[in-house]
Design brief:
heterodimer; A: four-stranded antiparallel beta sheet; B: 11 strands
Chain lengths: ~110, ~110
């Protein structure tokens, strides 16, 4: 079974721009969560989507948003990029909502904001 | 809110020895605790989950203990190999029933041949 895939793997953007990251979950998994990982803050939960609805949300500003499509694929958008948004963005999929103990992570998208 | 502490200093050991990593937490009594392995530039890979009523869990060369009184988990890798070199993260579900995981910063393990 194919794992979680994320595109693109690397991205360089300029302050003020916006960016969209994509995540395809493991086949049959309907929950997709997004995380931000930085050296300073570690791995932090952004939000979770299940059945095209946001089910859980972390403590991030409204510039961070996401959506999920009917095939469970998910996108994450960050608007008005700031230097501090430079991070590894990870997506994880799980069979059902809230089953974070069963989640599988993708390889991540490395975002650099200049 | 809960706080998770892992040793920020890298752990250097010789091949064949047992590596022991520590995860301490405060302000909380989690229903379970997880350990993940993360290689540079890659996503974390789940290794083991131990529940609050389990004292110890094993998987091949891995062993995890969970002391809810001390609020501590120990992660052991026996007969360590250079391929075990990675960062190891512990994670706890958030309090309040949401089960959103909170991750420690991780400890880097370096196994020297």
């Amino acid at each position: 079974k194919a794992g979680v895939t994320q595109t693109p793997r690397y991205l360089i953007k300029t302050r003020g721009q916006q960016v969209t990251l994509s995540c395809s979950p493991i086949s049959g998994h309907r929950s997709v969560s997004w995380y931000q990982q930085t050296p300073g803050q570690g791995l932090q939960f952004l939000f979770e989507y299940f059945s095209e609805t946001q089910r859980n949300k972390g403590n991030f500003p409204g510039r961070f948003s996401g959506r999920q499509f009917s095939n469970s694929r998910s996108e994450m958008n960050v608007s008005t990029l700031e230097l501090g948004d430079s991070a590894l963005y990870l997506c994880a999929s799980a069979p059902r909502t809230g089953t974070f103990y069963e989640q599988y992570f993708g390889p991540g998208t490395r975002l650099t904001v200049t | 809110s809960q706080k998770i502490e892992q040793n920020s200093e890298a752990l250097n050991i010789q091949e064949g020895k047992t590596a022991t990593l520590t995860c301490n937490y405060t302000n909380y009594s989690p229903a379970y605790l997880q350990w993940y392995r993360q290689d540079p530039g890659r996503g974390p890979v789940f290794l083991l989950l131990i529940r609050e009523n389990e004292k110890e869990k094993r998987k091949e060369r891995l062993k995890v203990t969970f002391d809810t009184t001390l609020k501590q988990s120990l992660f052991h890798i026996t007969a360590s190999q250079p391929a075990d070199s990675a960062t190891y993260l512990c994670a706890l579900p958030a309090s309040g029933g949401s089960y959103i995981p909170t991750f420690g910063r991780g400890t880097s393990l370096i196994v020297h041949p």
